[in-house]
Design goal:
It is built from one helix and five strands, in the order E-E-E-E-E-H. The longest helix has 11 residues. It has a five-stranded antiparallel beta sheet with strand order 4-3-2-1-5, with no helix packed on it. It has 81 residues and is mostly beta strands. It is globular. Helix content is 14%, strand content 36%.
C-alpha cells in the first residue's frame, strides 16, 4: 500500500549534498529504475526544476495527502497558507 510508484510525491529522508538536497525536500517520482531506485524531480513553486536525483527507496518517504484531508474533514480545520 505504501509502495512508491511512478508520479508519487515523496520527501527525502536525509540530506543528499551531491544533488544539493536537504532532508524533507519534496519531489515527484518520474522514473522507476532497477533494484528499488527512483528518479525524483524537484521543482520550485514556479514549477522550475532545480534537481533530479536517483534515490533508493530507503531514502524516501511517500507523502500521503489523504491523511491531511481526512483530518480537515473531521475537525473542520483549514490548512495554513
Amino acid at each position: 500500500m505504501n509502495e512508491i510508484m511512478l508520479l508519487d510525491v515523496v520527501a527525502v529522508l536525509e540530506d543528499v549534498p551531491q544533488h544539493g538536497l536537504l532532508c524533507v525536500e519534496v519531489g515527484t517520482v518520474v522514473e522507476l529504475w532497477k533494484d528499488g531506485v527512483f528518479e525524483v524531480e524537484f521543482s520550485d513553486t514556479s514549477g522550475r526544476v532545480y534537481a533530479f536525483a536517483a534515490l533508493r527507496a530507503d531514502q524516501l518517504l511517500k507523502v500521503n495527502f489523504s491523511t491531511i484531508n481526512r483530518r480537515e474533514k473531521a475537525t473542520g480545520e483549514q490548512p495554513e497558507e
